[in-house]
Amino acid sequence: MTAVTSDAVSWRIQGAVYGLGLFNTSIFQIASVIVPLYLATMNPSPLMFGLVFSAGHLLPLFLSIHTGALMDRLGARQVMLVCTTVGAIVPLFYPMVSWIWALVVLQMFFGLSESMGWLGAQTMIGQYMHGKTYYAGRLSFIIRIGQLAAAPMAGAAWDLTGPWGAFALLLLWAFGAVACALLLPPQEIDPTSPASASGRRAKLQALLPTAADYLTAFRLLHVPAVVIIVLLGALMHVGNAVQGSFYVAWLNDVGLTGTAIGMLSPAAAVAAALFSLLTASAARLFGGLWVALVSLWSGILLICVTPLLGSYLLLQISGANGLAQLLVITLVLRGAGRENQGKAIGLRGTANRVASIVSPLAMGALAEVAGMEAAFYLVGGAASIVMAGIAIFLWQRPDVAKAGED
Q1: How far apart are the C-alpha atoms of 190 and 1, rounded to whole Å?
Q2: Backbone angles phi, psi at 404, to 5 degrees
């Protein structure tokens, strides 16, 4: 795929990319409210509860690098059109199922669409916006607007209209992502790419996974900053996995309504949006990886001490990961090089899926053995041990710790 080389980025492209980020992260926010509430009506065991949410990350685990490679070859627009269309179909089926294993299957395909849509928005920051932190900062700021509206609307829709109305809202948001993908201009295919070959067989082969793509992606791990940021991104998804599954179940068990649960996100979204605008300056002052580490560590701890702090206090002060999110994007893009940006984001996505699969399953198992409250603390403690190890490494390698300066 031939990337845009001019420094000028049109507002049409910016709007489409920011819209993809907004709708796909908002889709995640809506699903994080209504899917746990819907699943709770089936009275699953903690382990089955964790399995349902792990299933949403299974297909992205195997396909993130391949999807990123397709974006490198074909451009993000073509891939996004397919992924967002899948995301606009799957929500129709959620209210129809009452069997947990059917919900597992739906989660697999919905998770693929949602995660690949977000992966595409990140890749476009590299393909069209040169991996600049200020563009990623705008993306991070704008997606918080979706958070302000999506989660409260999801909770209210659940209380007022039940599952059908709540999943209709999810469907509406998914169509927004499709519209943004259509706004993206067609991208020129690199004539040296297999995707430009003529003939049905050659074009089919260009769409299939190749060992070379995976090897190229994993070779990026020889860059210390890429290794650290991929690991930090995975740890961020530990917090997201807890917040989007057992956290909502905990709030539901202590008696909060869907509306009350949905209203918890706006304060965090405002804080994250404001923090995101400070990221470039903070990265220049302290080093990108230190900023990402401290931001993520604080966010995970605030989520994992939910039983101590109380729900509203927790989310009102847990927006610090707004600093980390865009650094995770830009640091990986810079370390990968222009021709491998999709693969680099795919590599990060693969690590994220491992964390997102393991976290709900592990927490479900811990909850069955030690109780739900203890499971929150144990997950937070395990994440803190890994964070402390990263901090020691960065302290010993100041050259790596300064990665991310513009």
Answers
A1: 5
A2: 100, 0
What fold, for 11-185+220-401? Growth Hormone; Chain: A; (1.20.1250)
CA-atom Rg of the chain in angstroms: 20
Position of tokens 């739900």?
372
User: Tokens 């195997």 — which residue?
Assistant: 62
Q: Which helix (H) or strand (E) holds 241?
A: helix 224-243
- Torsions phi, psi of 320, nearest 5? -65, -20
Task: Please give the DSSP secondary-structure letter assigned to residue 195.
Answer: G
| CB neighbour list of residue 349: distance below 8 Å, 6 or more residues apart | 60, 64, 65, 67, 68, 115, 119
What would the two tokens of residue 298 be? 């604080």
Beta strands in 279-368 (DSSP E): none
pLDDT along the chain (406 residues), means of 10: 53 82 83 86 81 80 76 77 86 86 88 79 72 71 77 86 90 88 71 51 59 72 76 77 69 70 64 63 72 78 70 48 60 62 71 78 81 81 87 82 56
Tokens of 20: 């993809």
Token code pair at residue 377: 């603390």
C-alpha pair distances (Å), 15 with each of 2, 113, 148, 278, 333: 20, 20, 19, 21, 20
Residue type, 199: G
Residue 67 DSSP symbol: H
Report d(CA 75, CA 184) in Å as an integer: 10
